[in-house]
Amino acid sequence: MRPKRFRDTTRIGPVHVASFYDRRGRDKHTAACTAPRCGFSAEYDSRAAAELAARTHTCNP
Question: What Pfam family is a match, any one (predicted)?
Answer without folding.
Answer: SpdB
